[in-house]
Amino acid sequence: MKKLILLFFSFTLIHSAIAATSSSLVFDGSGDYVTCGNDASIQLTGNITVEAWVKAAGTGYGGLASKLVHEASREGYELAINANLTISFLVGQNNTNWNQATSSVGVTYDTWTHVAGTYDGSNIRVYINGTLRGTTAYSNGIIDSGNPLTLGSRGTGNYLTGSLDEVRIWNVVRSETQINDNKDIELTGSESGLVAYYKMNDGSGSTLTDNSTNSNTGTLMGDTYWGDDSLPVELTSFTAASTTEGVELRWTTENEIDNLGFVLERAANKNGPWQEIASFNTHNALVGQGTISQTTNYTFIDNSIEFGSNYFYKLSDVNINGTVTTLSTLNVNLTENTTVPNKTELYNAYPNPFNPETSISYYLDKDTNVSLSIYNILGVKIKDIFTGTQSAGNHNFKWNGTDQNGTNLPSGVYILQLQTLNANHYQNIILLK
Questions:
Q1: Whole-angstrom distance, CA of residue 431 vs CA of residue 412
Q2: Residues 6 or more apart whose Cβ sits within 8 Å of residue 256
């Protein structure tokens, strides 16, 4: 049996969980918007990135996040949706020195879509679902309009008909990779360059919290209201790891709404063509949790790979209405190592720290008696996970943080022991509640 060495470029993100009260803001296209003030932190005249999740419920022009004076002097910046559902990002300094980039494709009506715009002093770019969809050269810069930042409108006009969630404004240019890899992830709010961040988890009241380190608090105007039609799945990690069986793909969600399950696709190139390798219809491990507001871990092993190949993996979810949402992609490069495993190995538990459960995997070099146990930091055994004879190869168990009697254990450090006839293997694992 040949062992795989996996070299990969992917994200492993540890962020705070999406709150169970995750919500969005709904705008009816007639006088609804949020005003967020005109603090110096959002008076951006250099590098800029604006991001948002939008769900279009109408076909008129609407500002998503705007500090633009358009007709009068075209100063400022604005991320907007057009009547044909394409996305535009506008920047300018006066009526003759301004420009915009518009996406070559539109968003899907009544479907959550991530959109973003960037400006680096030379080019305006617009992205849909993490993919570059439009570029326009422009080097004349931005002058601040003096207008307050508004969400769901351009000032007191050009109102959005639809919903907004996870609005982010940066004073740096985010790359296509950064936008794509983080669009489904809840940020901490202290990321470098993040000047305004609206998670929209308030859920009630007339105030919108700025979750960045600034205080660009928003005030709901008109009939803007809180909706519970938030993003269907909140992903906190999507990673790949090498095993003797193939590429092990792992992902963790912190919140699922009406989620039927997941679809995994693979391609040789970033832009496809994509081939489905597993889905909730064919593999029980990919079945979703419906609606849940706690951590869920998923694992799938792709054993139909070839040595020396480069792969891209795409993870999507499907809701009860059949809507498919792409969550993330990662790139995996495989090389071959002809070294044959010659000893038993205890792999790193995943996730670690964990809540509510962690996956424990190990490789046995031959048939042997095995004892897999959990001890507390005083050395007292609190649970036997497995005791018996196992064949050579890979084995996997899950531990849900309970003792031998099924009682939930408190947060803390626990010791995992894998004992065979020839050796003992130990690992610290952390239970967090």
A1: 5
A2: 232, 233, 234, 288, 289, 290, 291, 292, 296, 317
Rounded Cα–Cα distance for residues 350 and 295 (Å):
13
State the sign of the Cα–Cα–Cα–Cα dihedral 362, 355, 179, 264. Answer: positive
pLDDT of residue 20: 33
pLDDT in tens, 331-352: 777 655 434 456 788 888 878 8
> Which of the two residues, 309 and 38, has the higher pLDDT score?
38
Cα torsion angle, 354, 3, 267, 101, sign:
positive
Q: How many Å apart are CA 147 and CA 246, to the nearest integer?
A: 55
Residue 310 and residue 331 in contact, taking contact as beta carbons nearer than 8 Å = yes
* Residue 379 backbone phi and psi in degrees, to 5: 85, 15
CA 202 – CA 179 distance, rounded (Å): 24
User: CA-CA distance, 161 to 86, in Å (whole number)?
Assistant: 14
Q: Given this model, what pLDDT does residue 418 score?
A: 93
Strand pairing category for 62-66 and 150-151? antiparallel
pLDDT above 90: percentage of residues in the chain? 48
Choose among 287, 184, 286: nearest CA to 238: 184
How many other C-beta atoms can be found within 10 angstroms of the C-beta atom of residue 335?
Answer: 11
pTM of the model: 0.60
Q: Distance of alpha carbon 128 from its chain centroid, rounded? A: 15
% the chain with pLDDT above 70 = 90
Average pLDDT along the chain:
85
**What is the spatial distance between Cα 429 and Cα 282, in angstroms, rounded to a whole number?**
32
Band of residue 281 on the pLDDT scale cut at 50, 70, 90: very high
- Both tokens of residue 34? 């949020």
Task: Pick left, alpha or beta for residue 395 (phi over 0 → left; psi -120 to 50 → alpha; otherwise beta).
Answer: beta
Helix (H, G, I), strand (E, B) or coil at 295: coil
